[in-house]
Amino acid sequence: MTTPRTTAAGERSDLFITPGHLACPGCGATLAMQWVLSVLGKDTVLGLPACCFSIISGAFPHTPMNVNLVHTAFETGAALATGLKAGLEATGRGDAHVVSWVGDGGTFDIGLQALSGAAERNEDIIYVCYDNEAYMNTGNQRSSATPRFARTTTSPTGETMHKKDIMAIMAAHGIPYAAGASISHPDDLIAKVERAKDIRGTRFLHILVACPTGWRMPSDMTITAARLAVESGIFPLIEIEDGERTTVNYLPEEKIPVSEYLAVQGRFSGISEDDIADLQRWVDEKWERLLKTADVAGP
Amino acid sequence: MKQLLEGNHAVSMGVLRSRVQVIPAYPITPQTHISELLAQFTSDGTMDARYIKVESEHSAMAACIGAATAGARTFTATSSQGLALMHEMLHWAAGGRLPIVMACVNRTLGSPWNIWNDQSDSMAQRDAGWLQFYCENNQDCVDSVLLAYAVTERVYTPAMIILDAFILSHTTEPVDVPDEKQADSFLPKLVNPHAIDLGTPRAFSPVVAPDHFTEVKYRQFDAARRALSVIDEEHKKFADIFGREYQSVEAYHTEDAEVVIAACGAVCGTIRAAVDRLREKNIPAGMLKIRTFRPFPVNLIRSALSGAKALFVLDKSVTPGLGGPLAQEMRAALYDTDTHPRIVGAVAGLGGRDITVDLVAEAVEDISKMKDIPEPLFLGLKQEADKS
């Protein structure tokens, strides 16, 4: 059974993840899942390595998902999706969308080799990295997607390294489409899934999903935090086509100071003024570099 | 029609005749000739299949799992370090009850580096939940691919066909490649009712909590156990169509044998000759070839050995701190019998060292004279090994 719902654009769609799932209150990942599937539809097969969604999607004999969902081991998101697509093609169902739905640990760290392999082969898959910036499923350990100065259980005095530039890595593979999106900007997110849907080859969607549990903030702050990430420029909404043409899809009228983004999250509590200034410099430098090489989408 | 084929290419021909649809593969010596020929077949149109040039063996098995979950007939091949790298996904495939066939070309595991033959790689995966079939010759290699699909697609337990590196993989023998019509009649198109159905959303391999997990594992166990009779049925069906007979356990002169030599794989050819030589010297020897190692054919082994006084188990791998794996399995199988024979576990052929007819025949002769036989008995061990 699917339950009718209304999208932000006012169109009826199906509910692809039903109430009863096991996400934490305020989970940004479930919102991302709902938006992505609302575009791709029921002829979608999800490949799911170990991540928050392994748990969110429930234990046998229940599933809240209204599409086929294939669980797999941590580092195999892109390799499993490769096989799923090949198997569906071999059985006359090559039109189905195969989506690799992978967390930041499974993308930036343990699954990067398989992702690179699939991207290099230009496998016909949509790879979604839903990024909550740490190993949240195992209780908030740092990943290479964790921003500098964030406190996790394995960076208790603050992360020492800056976040890995996964978009640059994916762009270097020359894949037809890579995009950064945020749950705070659903129209942009939906537009990007629509674009990805119509392209063949490897499509990479990097979606920032704020995580109240891991980011240590109230569960009603999910959208706010995700929005501040975009408005501060620490998570730009961009598209990269064929690894070459970069577009900034959303240009804040004026970038807000990154401190406003940090302030709503407990994971940055106790950060020094020097460290905030350091992070601000890093964000500004990246932002300037981006604007030098990218087009800016019209309003 | 007979062709001269190396063991690796015999496997490739078996894959061609099985009309495999998806082949994710990664190169490793000594397996590479299998996947190279399949890459050729899929490139020149001989074979209608997708050959996926994955970036590791781990991804090869993950891609096999995806393709098999979607319902495609799926194959890969590997050896040694590649099989070890796959270890995690071997369990995933078996737990997912996926009818995947893989060829393992037996090569030892490092360290130290060694590309030559022994059975350390496949034996190390004996608890991964895969059926294991050990080939003795190149005819066996081509036939075993078809047989493995026939079995795995009935019991939904993945199957490994195993051939000794170089001894079979790179050695040419005359092989009767099944013709297409006969192969198709033996192995019909795969229709897996458990595969993805786009109209019926399901979760594959989800979290299963303690209240159901034991039952899931019991079903997996039961399928592997039931596989033994399915293997027997498919052997008979195969013999009817192709005229070639296979058995899970094959006996050679065991009827009146006082000492029986047991082993897996190509070394059984050497052991046959050793048995003949021992019989020339009036030593009533016999051989038991264990073709099906998983499931372990306990009852067949018990009945085949009911008259033997001594059992000489030849392992081509060793578990440090215990002994040869086949010897341990044979001991366990025979412990509860009334007439269980004296069992000597021997280890030979590690890292490609030749196992000769003399080595086996002399070792079997010697055990009757030896009082304290070490466990395991390393055949042909050089004295330098004692200077640690």
Give an account of the 3D structure.
The complex is a heterodimer of chains A (299) and B (388). Chain A is an alpha/beta fold and 299 residues long. Chain A has a single domain (3-297), classed as 3-Layer(aba) Sandwich (Rossmann fold). Chain A has helices spanning 28-40, 52-56, 77-90, 104-109, 112-120, 166-172, 186-197, 212-215, 222-231, 258-263, 273-293; strands spanning 4-6, 12-14, 44-48, 68-71, 97-103, 126-131, 177-182, 203-208, 238-241, 245-248, 295-296. In chain A, helix 1 (28-40) crosses helix 7 and helix 3 crosses helix 5. Chain A is globular, with a radius of gyration of 18 Å. Chain A starts with a strand and ends with a strand. Chain B has helices spanning 7-17, 32-43, 57-69, 80-95, 120-123, 138-155, 180-186, 210-242, 267-280, 298-304, 325-334, 357-367, and strands at residues 2-6, 22-25, 50-53, 75-78, 101-106, 131-134, 159-164, 172-176, 203-204, 249-252, 259-263, 285-290, 292-294, 310-315, 342-347, 377-378. In chain B, the strands form four sheets. Chain B has a six-stranded mixed β-sheet, with helices on both faces. A five-stranded mixed β-sheet of chain B has the order 4-5-7-6-13, sandwiched between helices. The N and C termini of chain B lie far apart (54 Å). The chains are: A alpha/beta (299), B alpha/beta (388).
How does the helix and strand content of chain A classify structurally? alpha/beta
Helix content of chain B: 40-55%
Question: Main sheet of chain A, how many strands, which sense, barrel?
Answer: 9 strands, mixed
Pair of chains with the largest interface and how many residues each contributes: A-B, 45 and 44 residues
- Individual helix count of chain A: 11
CATH architecture of the largest domain in chain B: 3-Layer(aba) Sandwich
Please list the strands of the largest sheet of chain A in the order they lie side by side.
4-3-5-6-8-7-9-10-11
N-end to C-end Cα span of chain B:
54 Å
